[in-house]
Design brief:
alpha/beta, binds magnesium ion, 5-stranded mixed sheet, 7-stranded parallel sheet, 15 helices, 381 residues
């Protein structure tokens, strides 16, 4: 029985993870669940899975939850989340917190020596230079939940990573692959949320529409697989069947394919080294007789270019990229800024910040605060 804690259990990945666990109750046990603000769903999940602990980040919901709980102990706030990240009863913690607030929990889990199924890619984007060496030092496994990185991980099973020649990271191209960039300022929230292939949370859906998501995944790939960004090629693959590929030094290429269904990578991150059956997945090759690939347009999707620049310049650049993007996506979702302003504002923020070469955790937190203030000033809200 694998004992699991989930950070962000009411989000898209958290909910799918619980579905997987519900279908495999002989293999997994939930020890704790945490949520940001959705107290009602957390309560419902708590009644169903009977975790020992739950935590709500929003302290206003504390009284409401505590009235309704019997056996389950309630934690609240960031302190509560961090305390649960040090719970030695669990074998694995799924970090599916959205955005830059996921970093501190990631570091706490690694410091506690607990394996992590990582859905919070922002942890790696902004602090890969700290997270990855720390995980190595503490002998902690980071199992990627992202479908592309799950694909790369699966392709590498039984291989020597020194024999990688090139990584080909696939991208669906998002909902605006065919739209002229002159039209980008007209894009509405509902158009941007309407991803052609994947069903995901709001933040990552917008990141997919701007293609910043692929930029983040480029940075994530560099750190998770210890590979130079020059050896990572992004290619648009509109069907989202090939989830990424590895070319080895002998010219052989391995790819992982499946229906675009997040249950597959989420479950593999939880079940590794085992594979368990997932019902209702019926890949039909006849539906995909033409798999196509096309180059990515960096002029149109400026966010990818910004991510390339940020990781090449290194230091504090990826922190600013990540935090600025989080805040601007939220502003777009609240209909305060236009879609095409997201990369423009990120670029301006990156160019205006005071560069730090090898930021410590303390410095990352200072840069985060600076970026929050800078964006508030710039967007004037
Ligand atoms: Mg992905």
């Amino acid at each position: 029985m694998k004992k699991i804690g989930i950070l962000g259990s009411t989000g898209s990945v958290g909910k799918q993870a619980l579905q997987i666990i519900e279908n495999n109750l002989d293999k997994f046990q939930i020890i704790f669940l945490t949520a940001n603000t959705n107290a009602d769903l957390l309560l419902e999940q708590s009644k169903k899975f009977k975790p020992k602990f739950i935590c709500i980040n929003d302290k206003n919901k504390k009284d409401y939850l505590s009235k309704s709980l019997n056996q389950t102990k309630l934690f609240f706030g960031k302190e509560g989340i961090l305390e649960l990240c040090n719970n030695q009863e669990v074998d694995l913690i799924l970090n599916s917190i959205v955005g830059y607030h996921g970093l501190e929990p990631t570091l706490q889990i690694i410091n506690s020596g607990i394996d992590i199924a990582l859905s919070n890619k922002e942890s790696i984007v902004q602090a890969g230079h700290i997270v990855i060496p720390l995980a190595k030092k503490n002998d902690v496994n980071i199992f990627p939940v992202d479908s592309e990185h799950s694909a790369l991980w699966q392709c590498l099973i039984g291989e020597d990573s020194k024999t990688i020649k090139k990584i080909i990271l696939t991208a669906s191209g998002g909902p605006f692959r065919k739209l002229n960039e002159n039209e980008f300022h007209k894009i509405t929230k509902s158009e941007a949320l309407n991803h052609p292939n994947w069903s995901m949370g709001e933040k990552i859906s917008i990141d997919s529409a701007t293609m910043m998501n692929k930029g983040f995944e480029l940075i994530e790939t560099k750190w998770l697989f210890d590979i130079n960004v020059d050896k990572i090629e992004i290619v648009v693959h509109p069907q989202s069947i090939v989830h990424s590929m590895i070319e080895f030094i002998d010219g052989s290429i391995k790819a992982q394919l499946s229906d675009p269904d997040m249950r597959i990578p989420i479950q593999f991150a939880l079940s590794y080294p085992h594979r368990y059956e997932i019902k209702n997945i019926n890949f039909n090759v006849n539906n995909f007789l033409k798999l196509s690939f096309e180059p990515v347009n960096l002029k149109k999707f400026k966010c990818i270019k910004l991510a390339y620049d940020a990781i090449k310049l290194g230091g504090s650049y990826p922190v600013v990229l990540n935090v600025a993007n989080d805040l601007l996506v939220e502003l777009f979702l609240n209909e305060k800024i236009l879609f095409n302003m997201i990369p423009k504002y990120i670029e301006k923020t990156m160019n205006s910040h005071h560069v730090i070469k090898n930021p410590t955790i303390q410095e990352i937190s200072e840069i985060t605060k600076w970026t929050e203030n800078y964006i508030k000033e710039m967007v004037k809200i």
